[in-house]
Amino acid sequence: MWTHRARPVNASGPPDRVVVIGAGMGGLAAALDLATAGAEVKLFEAQADPGGKARRVTAGDRTVAAGPTVFTMRRVFEALFEAAGERLDAHLTLTPAETLARHAWPDGSRLDLFADPARSESAIAEFAGGAEAARFRAFSARAERLFAALSPTFIESQKPGPLAVARAIGPRPGLLGDMAPGLSLWRALGRDLRDPRLRQLFGRYATYVGGSPYLSPALLMLIWHVEASGVWLVEGGLSRIARVLANLVAARGAEIRYEAPVAEILVDGGRVSGVRLADGERIAADRVIFNGDVGALAAGRLGAAVRRAVAGVPRRARSLSALTLTMQADASGFPLHHHTVFFGADYAREFREIVTERRLPTDPTVYLCAEDRGADGAPPEEADRLLAIINAPADGDLRGFNEEEIEACQTGAFETLARAGLTLTPRPGALMRTTPATFERLFPATGGALYGRAPHGMMASFRRPGARTRLPGLYLAGGSTHPGAGVPMATLSGRLAAAALLEDRASTSVSIRAATPGGTSTASPTTGRTRSR
């Protein structure tokens, strides 16, 4: 599983000149695989540090994690490091979390879920009764079967179509029932579980990939299996992973430039020829990997010549954005864990406000990461460094939510926490807000969408672009591409982009060597057709 290898480039010719745009997880993974394979790699990043959405911001006199915080699918990263001849544990300190997350409701009830399935089942039995614990066990088994079937055939593969997935499921007819085609995640959870609080808890996994549980397919229940398979706490946070990857990329001879935004992808003779930086410098390249939201390409932000290389995401198909609060604060009244979710009272109203009415929720669910609380949840000696995430519509390019709307949502978030017993007192000058408009400025042409296309409907996953584009020499990586959003998926997308590039390079080399004296390319013996990328 996850064994993509960085194959050496064809030794009979010069190394490919590859430009990678964006030092997010996908761009870094692609650059590492390609540099390991011997390509001449130049990586350009608009910000001052690597990581993309895995970023940190200053709140008061300390920095606070302001991006993704949950580390899962460890094997994805182990395979990436192994392909580069490294060991993950030699570069990162990872502590397994016995408690996956703590959950709290307005009625004062709480539930912890654990890495140990038996402990989770016992906790649910105490929380909602033995019958519900048995239903949870069956639900978990379904999620595991779905993940096992779709991981090799969909997640790890170059953008398969519906027929490929159907063929994989065909020999196992019971999987079709597990998938519950035609049912939303919310409806499927109503079939599987009886306690409305558990339905709310497992429905939140749709938001992990930017969707509403009322519109996302039941298939997303497999995300629960991903989390149940292990969550790790990363010393230094997820941005630390980006810094380590950047160091490995540079150690393999690649050039990395920060604060070097790319203004245009250059095209010559119907294929990519390089990039132009914002300062006017032109960099020649044989191939380019774009590690950014596909909306930026489709909107012409990287030049008119590449805007038709990939389809954009319609505004109504965008994933969720967020209002985030990063702060130093004194916390009391509630035993915070590293990951804690505080649910609002009316989930249906919350998503109606966000998705249908396109406004900030008034009674939001709040995810809170207390980054200084380790695996035991013990409070720090200083104030907690906290990241609060509140789902929001991705309309940052259409409207900037005014101060009154933002304040009302923030007040609602603190009330959600207070109903569960948590009192937060931010330190003076140590609370920073990021809105959908801010995310639009950071990630242009997205409206602030943090996950690319929303996972709404059974076909949504197939509408994400794969690594290859319509333009020869241009490849895609990142959370808006296949296999989807989230740090491990974005990392896989970068590896898939590198693998596609190397495959196309090798195929093209075979075709060139087999060309007739008149210069007509012959079909590749491995693909049966001429490859131009």
Can you give a write-up of this model?
With 533 residues, this protein is an alpha/beta fold. The protein folds into 3 domains: 181 residues, FAD/NAD(P)-binding domain (3-Layer(bba) Sandwich); 111 residues, no CATH class; 123 residues, no CATH class. The protein has 17 helices and 19 strands. The strands form 5 sheets. It has a 7-stranded mixed β-sheet with strand order 7-6-15-16-17-14-18. The chain has a 5-stranded parallel β-sheet with strand order 9-2-1-13-19, with helices on one face. Strand 1, helix 1 and strand 2 form a beta-alpha-beta unit. It starts with 16 loop residues before the first strand and ends in a 20-residue tail after the last helix. The C terminus is likely disordered.
Question: What labels describe this entry?
Answer:
seven-stranded mixed beta sheet; disordered C terminus; five-stranded parallel beta sheet; 3 domains; 533 residues; FAD/NAD(P)-binding domain; alpha/beta
Task: Quickly describe the structure.
It is built from 17 helices and 19 strands. With 533 residues, it is an alpha/beta fold. The strands form five sheets. It has a seven-stranded mixed beta sheet.
Q: Which architecture of the largest domain would the CATH scheme give at its second level?
A: 3-Layer(bba) Sandwich
Classified by CATH, the class of the largest domain is: Alpha Beta
Q: In angstroms, what is the radius of gyration?
A: 23 Å
Mean pLDDT over the full residue set: 91
The termini sit apart by 27 Å
Number of domains: 3
Kindly identify the CATH topology of the largest domain.
FAD/NAD(P)-binding domain
- Uncertain runs: 510-533
- Share of helical residues: 25-40%
Classification by helices and strands: alpha/beta
The major pleated sheet works out as: 7 strands, mixed
Question: Count the helices. How many?
Answer: 17
